[in-house]
Amino acid sequence: MRVAERPAALAEAIEPAPLHRQLGLTDPERDAIVDRLGRDPNDLELAMFSVMWSEHCSYKSSRHLLRTLPTGGARVVAGPGENAGVVSIGDGLAVCFKLESHNHPSAVEPYQGAATGVGGILRDIFTMGARPIAVLDALRFGDPATARTRRLVRGVVQGVGGYGNCVGVPTVGGELAFHPSYEGNPLVNVMAVGVLEERHLTRAVARRPTDVVVLFGSATGRDGIGGASVLASATFGAQETGKRPTVQVGDPFAGKLLIEASLELIERGLLEGLQDLGAAGITCAASETADRGGTGMIIDLDAVPRREPGMAPFEVMISESQERMLAIVRPQRVPDVLGVCERWGLPAAIIGRVTDDGDVTVVDRGEELARIPARALTSDAIVHVREARAPARSRPAPAPDALQLTHGSLPERGMDPGAVLLALLGDPNLASRAWITTRYDQTVGTDTVEGAQHGAAILRIKGTRKALVMATDADHRVGLLDPYLGAVSAVAECTRNVAITGARPLGVTDCLDYGDPERPEAFWQLSEAVRGLGDACRALELPVTGGNVSLYNESAGRAIAPTAQIGVVGLLDDVEARVGPAFAGAGDAVGLLGELVPGLAGSVYAERAGAAPDDRPPGVGLAGELALQRLLIAAAEQGLLRSAQDVSGGGLAVALAECCLWADVGADVQLSVGSAPAVELFGESAGRVVVSAVPARWSDLATLARAHGVPLRRIGEVGGERLRIRLVGEGATGAAEERGARVADEVDQPLSVLRHAWESGLPRALGEEV
Asked: Rounded to 5 degrees, what are φ and ψ at 613?
């Protein structure tokens, strides 16, 4: 009797997949490995390739896109390809900064995922020779009413604070946003900033054969095997809880010792190169430092300190145990290096040496276990040019006249716009962030001038009059409608938030959070975002100094909103000349810089109240944006501004309310409405800033604005205990609003009522007692 052949699907279910597929490599990728080696790889070599050719480590889907970004500039000291970007700030000093994601680990284990995200980005900073001075966290979650989101928010916030507070670096800024697309896949993007003397700049490079390889810091264990590299290279399914063992475990106290020991080694000139161990562990650190130097490296596994017995060679090579550093040291300096590590209580061991053959060679007790060209793991890693296809367009929201309001939505159109303002101030996307920021130590280090509650953070540079200004921004709502515009908008807003303090933006770092690049629509979104990022940075004359790409941000078949997360650092030459967002005093004149561009799509208002099917997000005029930012910097230098706050989330009405609430003083404003009152009050078109000035200097400010070609309207006066916004001119009665919405003429609310809505909105949304 002839036995029927097993169906292919059944055979695959019974027989295990080939090892390379189990490790996440495709058949074409295995063929490429064979081509680079000239032979079949062994199991250890496959494991090393699998982590180094992961999306997280290799940028195999985005590398060719990232090469289109502007990265040079007169002030740029180190750019993409290094652990972090470095920009000169004069007097022999430089600022080092980078933004990176820890999305997938945080979705699995929120506390440790977030904590190790902070630890990892701090290591990127001090690896360059800079002392970390600040952390900013940009967080995005799903519906705040769900138990899962509330668990993730609490875990991530505790993780960020738990590591940052203990390691002694203040968490001074960031963002918090909620959107249904992040329900299964939250975004945890962390930015760190440091300061260094340019002479201490250290690179992750091994140039000299016979130099010694020293591993110092925590011992190597099984925690984090394939953590960031594997988790960040696949979408999530129902089995995500089974991935918890791959999440790294952080130790902030060891992290603090690592900072101090590393900076001492650098300042004493004891190191030739330094690389932290993050994703892909020893494999990544060894191959990257060797490839950058055009050398090879031999790693002796038997010499690697371990905290668990019986670890297999592949576990040692790809473990992502935290708080470890790999140093390149001249042989004669090894005793001094080991002495510094001993004094700081950090284990250290010689685990290898630099060679001249270009290979990463792994040995154990004299036996060669693996030999791979360093460049095959890094600079010559595979690159995929994916198919990009724009999705079919559909209207973004129901027309307002067909709107079905849900619980917690805005009052119906035709009601008092003051009630709309209260609803927006209480929206978890716009309400006060004090529930989170008070859990962070914002002042440790004594450099913080302005922290997380007042827009961009400001930190003084000790021993100088200078200060650094830093901010993060993204615009996922616009990104959903137009990923190109979403990226442009994020760059414009982030640089504007720095410029309103009077600081000159120095550079941009990014974290591009997108879906599965193997889907043409998702890759199109990424491609459009990179195009927008490049166009915006070129127009604003800023370099992209580095960053991160996080792909496969999908869960249960649903991708996140396209999110171009942006970080910007700027320089204030005189910290005393800084401008804050809060109104400064009664009697000051209130003005509005820039022009309104009609459109509600992509706004918080439209997200809650609905948008017309033909509505599109307002465009961003980059030439006007550059002129506006230059005006703000010049006005601050001349002492013309008492306050400045950009118009963004929630529109002009929310911006005015924030200026009042931060200062605890009211304002009386009159607006000439040329379009719909809802657009004037709650539209989020870019390139507008609310400013205040003493009346005696108003003419000087107006003259300066004209010289920069920036429109300036005087719209009111600071004073009282209420916010009053009167609407006059065309459309003021509400009857002329095009889409049938009838809005009353005035906003007139006491500050106490506005404050209650603003301060209670976030804790109430998260189920906390108010």
From this structure: -60, -25
Average the pLDDT over 95-124 and give the result. Answer: 94
Rounded to a whole number, what is the distance in angstroms from the first to the last CA of the chain? 76
* pLDDT of 4: 40
Residue 234 has pLDDT above 60, yes or no: no
- Give the containing element (helix H, strand E) for 362: strand 359-364
DSSP category for residue 610: -
pLDDT confidence of residue 770: 66
Beta-strand ranges (E) seen in 474-602 are: 504-513, 544-550, 554-555, 558-559, 563-572, 589-593
CB of 351 closer than 8 Å to CB of 294: no
Query: What is the layout of strands, in order, in the sheet containing 448-450?
Result: 448-450, 457-460, 467-473, 563-572, 504-513, 544-550
Residues 622 and 629: beta-carbon distance below 8 Å: no
Q: State how far the Cα of 470 lies from the Cα of 456, in Å rounded to an integer.
A: 6
Yes or no: say if 536 and 81 are a contact pair by the CB < 8 Å rule.
no
Identify any residues that bridge with 450 across adjacent strands, giving them in sequence order.
458
Residue 619: name the closest of 539, 674, 542, 551 by CA.
Answer: 539
Question: How do residues 603-627 score in pLDDT, each as one tens digit?
Answer: 999 998 877 777 889 999 999 999 9
Residue 503's nearest CA partner among 457, 452, 454 is 457
Is the pLDDT at 742 greater than 50? The verdict is: no
Q: What is the DSSP string of 274-329?
A: EEE--TTHHHHHHHHHHHHHT-EEEEEGGGS-BSSTT--HHHHHH---SSEEEEEE
pLDDT digits over 445-497, tens only?
A: 888 898 867 789 999 999 999 999 999 999 999 999 999 999 999 999 999 99
Token pair of 719, please? 């004073």
Q: Please say whether the beta carbons of 674 and 729 come within 8 A.
A: yes
Q: So what's the pLDDT on residue 435?
A: 93
Provide CB contacts within 8 A for 366, sequence distance 6+.
none
pLDDT on residue 405: 31
What lies within 8 Å, CB to CB, of 230 at 6+ separation is 24, 50, 51, 54, 246
For residues 40-50, give the mean pLDDT.
97
Residue 745 predicted with pLDDT over 90: no
How many CA within 13 A on the CB side of residue 184? Answer: 17
Please compute the mean of the pLDDT values over residues 553-559 and round it to a whole number.
89
- Residue length of the chain: 770
- Convert 405-434 to b/e letters by CB count within 10 Å (16 or more is b): eeeeebeebeebbbbbbbbbbbbbbbbbbe
Token pair recorded at residue 100: 């990176």
User: For 201-231, what is the HEC assignment?
Assistant: CCCCCCCCCCCEEEEEECCECCCCCCHHHHH
Maximum pairwise Cα distance, the chain: 104
Q: In which residue are the tokens 């809060």 written?
A: 582
Q: Which residues are catalytic?
A: 56, 102
Specify the DSSP class assigned to residue 236: B
Task: Please classify residue 550 by burial: count the beta carbons closer than 10 Å to its beta carbon, then call 0-12 exposed, 13-18 middle and 19+ buried.
Answer: buried
The mean predicted confidence, pLDDT, of the chain is 90
Instruction: Please report the pLDDT score of residue 404 as a whole number.
Output: 35
- State residue 360 phi and psi, 5-degree precision: -90, 115
Residues 363 and 592: their CA atoms lie apart, in Å, by 67
Yes or no: say if 486 and 616 are a contact pair by the CB < 8 Å rule: no
Quote the pLDDT of residue 732. 53
User: What is the distance between the alpha carbons of residues 475 and 266, in angstroms, rounded to a whole number?
Assistant: 39
Render pLDDT for 351-383 as a digit per residue (tens, 0 to 9): 999 999 999 999 999 999 999 999 999 999 999
- Pairing, β 467-473 against β 457-460: antiparallel
* Contact yes or no for 672/729 (Cβ under 8 A): yes
- Return d(Cα 324, Cα 307) in angstroms, integer: 13
